[in-house]
Amino acid sequence: MTDPVLDDPLAVPGASRRQVLFAGAGALAAVVLAACGGGDSDSTATPATTTGGEPGPTAGGTPTTSAATATTLAPTPSCDDGDEPTPQQTEGPYFKANSPQQADLRSGAGGGTALNLAGTVVTTGCQPVNAAKIEFWQANDAGEYDNSGYTLRGHQFTDTQGRYSLQTIVPGLYPGRTRHIHVMVQAPNGPLLTTQLYFPGEARNASDGIYRSECLINVKDTSSGKDGTFTFVLNG
Question: Is residue 164 in some structural domain?
Fold first, then answer.
């Protein structure tokens, strides 16, 4: 599957290993995690769909939840000029164009652990990217994608300080993949970045052929769910 061109002139690519601070109520320090590129082979169960390098859930299969194992994240140095942009990852078979513009994807999700994800889109020179378009799509708590509607799908634009904020849930597991969130980022008139974000402490991270530790979200448990931060670094 080839990368679609987003209808809005915005972009936000991946993240490099550095930390960019962003302002905003309740905002955490945005963690810049580098190189998410790499393989497209999965290693668990037999997928029903392999379009775009990512397997689909096995028909009729019920995803199982694996116990999380402790993961120690490497220290993230402060952002400085010359940082590498976030690399590309496979789009997968479940992208749908024309998603609604919305920052809260939880409506109709049917439950799951709440996740508030926030961060910044910056250039390799650490400059914030205004009006970058960020598209998110993911599986629900049962590991299923909504392919007929737009549940857990949506896009938004960064503010003048390059900030974004997403309200969603922790995605469920399905055969062949660890937990992940799909993302497309595009700066105004810039190239399209397609990547994926992952969760620390997941047992399936070790067996997922697409997973990259550089794309881990920085996650913190809260009384209402989880807070996560991630900084995308665009080439520019």
Answer: yes
